[in-house]
Design goal:
Structural class: mainly alpha
Shape: flat
Strand content: under 5%
Order of helices and strands: HH
Number of helices: 2
Number of strands: 0
Radius of gyration: 35 Å
Largest sheet: none
């Protein structure tokens, strides 16, 4: 009779590496909840919506001046150049 060798089992809380190269890690569960005393969680979200949006839009003036204006200018120049090129053969 052929006797098969039994595979060794490592204990669950052991940190010795197994055959696949993984080590047993002890996990702990963390649960985050909102306190029942804090009822108005979303109350302050829209409290100062107007002032927040004003600040954000005022911060976009740099983007409008240095981003949008050159882009529109280059586009207008290209359209004007093409139109002048079409009309140049008439004179």
């Amino acid at each position: 009779a052929v006797v098969k060798p039994r595979a060794r089992r490592t204990p669950r809380n052991s940190t010795r590496q197994s055959e696949m190269g993984r080590a047993a890690v002890r996990l702990s569960e963390v649960v985050y909840t909102v306190s029942p005393m804090k009822v108005g969680v979303m109350g302050g979200l829209f409290k100062d919506f107007g002032s927040v949006m004003t600040k954000k839009l005022m911060g976009m003036t740099d983007m409008a001046i240095f981003g949008l204006a050159p882009t529109v200018g280059i586009y207008q120049y290209a359209v004007n150049f093409k139109e002048n090129e079409k009309l140049s053969h008439r004179y």
